[in-house]
Amino acid sequence: MTSTAHGAPRDVLVEEVARLSFGHATRSYLQTVAAMVGAEWQRVRREPSVLVARVAQPLLWLLVFGAAVSGVRGLGSEGVPYKAFLVPGVLAQSVLFVAIFSGLAIIWERDLGITQRILVTPVARSAIIVGKAASAALRAVVQVCVVLAVVYVTGIPLRWSVPAILGAVATVGLCTILLSAVSMVIASAVRSREQFMGIGQLVTLPLLFASNALYSVSVMPTWLRAVSQVNPLTYEVEILRRLLVGVGPDRLAVDVLVLLGGTVVAVAVASVTFPRRVS
Amino acid sequence: MRSLVVEDVAVRYGEVEAVRGASFSVEAGQVFGLLGPNGAGKTSILRVLTTLVRPAGGKAWILGHDVEAEPAAVRRLIGYVPQALSADGSLTGRENILLFARLYSVPRRDRTARIDQLLELMELGPAADRVVRTYSGGMVRRLEIACSLVHHPRFLLLDEPTVGLDPVASRAVWGHLTSLSKETGLTLLVTTHSMHEADEHCQRLAVMSGGVVRGEGTPGELRASLGTPGGTLEDVFAALTASANKGDLRDINRSRRTARRLG
Predict the structure, then answer these.
(1) Which residue of B has its CA nearest to A37?
(2) Range with the lowest mean pLDDT among A34-38, A260-264, B221-225?
(3) Among residues of chain B, what percentage have pLDDT more than 90?
C-alpha cells in the first residue's frame, strides 16, 4: 500500500472514487429520505397524545367555527353546505401549522448538535431537507386521515371515493413538503427559537387569511385576490375542494404544477441555506 | 503514517478570529488530545476537520483528503461525536444507530449484525430497545460513540466527550475509547479540559490558547518542557494559556447546557 503526500492510503482513494457512482448516489439519496421518514414514524407511533392534541384544533375550526359561520351569507361557498366547503380549508390550515412549525425542530436540533452530526454524514444536503420535509408530511398525512375519519362520522357530505381521498392525501403531503422547506429557510436564517416563533406566527395567519381556505376568492377585494394567487395554500385548497367537494376552478393540472414547481424551488433554496449557522 | 495534518488553519466568524494559524499532526492509531480553555479554538478546529466550517486560511488533510476540497470523501472516513448530547431521546438506542447506519449506507444485510456488535461493544445491549430519554448521561455518550462507529470510520473526532459526566461514567467512556484505539487501530482526536484525562489516556497532546497551538508533544515531553521537577500537566496548561482570554460566553453556555442535560 502506497501513500499520498499527506498520508492517505491509495486503496482508500480508489474505494472512494468507486463509491461515487450515480447509482450509489441515487440509492444514498433515497435511503437518507427513507431513514428520516422511518425515524419520524417511530416518533409518531410513540406519541399518540401529540397527534390527538394536533387533531383537536382543526376539529374545533370545523365543528365550532364552521357551525357558527355556516349561517352567514356571502362567504362564496358555491352552493354547497358551508361545513363541506370548509373541510378542505381546515385540512390545509392544519397542514400549514404542522409544516411551518417543523422549522422549530431544526433550530432545536441545531442547538443540540443533532444537525451537525447529520451534516457530517456523506449525504446530500437536499436529501436532508427532503427527508425532514417528508417527515413533516408524514405527520400531516396521519393528522389529515384522522380528521377525515371524524368528518366521515359527523356526516358532512364529501365525495368519499378512493381516488379522491388518495388524491387529497397526496396533495396534503406535497404541500407540507413545500411549506416545510419554506419553514427550514426561515429556521436557517434566525438565531433563536423565540425569533422563529415570532416569524412563524407572522407568516401563518396571513397565509391562511390570504387564501381560499375559509371563504371563496371571489368575495375578496382585488388586492387580496392578487395576494392569494401567489399563496401555495390557495392551490392546495383548490385541489382538495375539487376532489372532496366537487366545486371550485377546474384546473387540477395547473394547481399540481404550481405546487410541484414551488416545492422544487423551496427545497433548492432550503438546501443552500441549511443551516447557515452550525452553532 | 500521519492520519491528520493541520497546516496554518485559520477560522473566522464574521469579525471574530477563532483560530489564528493552528498547525499540528496526528499519527495513525494515536489517541491525540487537543487541550485548551474555553474559546481557545478547539471546537472551531473540529468544525473544520468535520467539514462543517470552511477554513479562512490554511489547509487540513485527513487520511490524505483535503477537508475543504474533498468534503464527501472526508465524511466517509470520519466519525464525529459533538460536545452536546445529540442522540434522539424519542428513539431507542437501536433505532438511533439504525438511523446512522442508513445515512451512511451500511448495506442492509450487514446492519443488524453491525448494530448488535456496537451495542455489545458499548455495553448497551440490555438497554438497546429502551427509548434514549431513559438513559443516563454516560449511556447516551456511549450510544453516540456507537452511532459514530457504525460505518467503520478510520478517524474519530470527539468534542469533550466526558464533559458533565461523573467520574465513573467518564472512566467507562475513556475505557471504551482506548480499547477501540488499541484493538482496531482507529485514530482518535479528542478535545478536553481535563488534564488528568489527557495525561492518562492521550499519547500526544496539543495545547491551544487564543486560537493558536502553544505547545505540542507527549504528556511527558510537555511536563519536561517546564524545566521544573515535579511539574504537572496542569502547570504546563497554566503556563501555556496564562495570557489567554477566559473563553467566550457562547462556549461557556454550551458546556453548561450539556452539563444540565446530563443532570
Answers:
(1) B99
(2) B221-225
(3) 62
What separation in angstroms does the CA of B1 have from each of A1, A4, B5, B206? 12, 10, 11, 18
- Does residue A108 form part of some domain? yes
Please list every residue in chain A whose beta carbon sits closer than 8 Å to the beta carbon of residue B95: 39, 42
Q: Which domain holds residue A68?
A: 48-273
Chain B, 199 to 258: residues with Cβ < 8 Å from chain A are 250, 254, 257
Question: Is A146 part of any domain?
Answer: yes
Range of the domain at B125: 2-261
ipTM rounded to 2 decimals: 0.83
pLDDT tens-place string over residues A122-163: 988 899 999 999 999 999 999 999 999 999 999 999 999 999
Chain B residues with CB under 8 Å of A123 CB are 103
A68 in any annotated domain: yes
pTM of the model: 0.83
* Domain count for chain B: 1
The CATH number of residue B155's host domain is 3.40.50.300
Residues with Cβ within 8 Å of residue B156, at least 6 apart in sequence: B78, B79, B80, B81, B145, B148, B149, B177, B180, B186, B187, B188, B189
| Total domains, chain A | 1
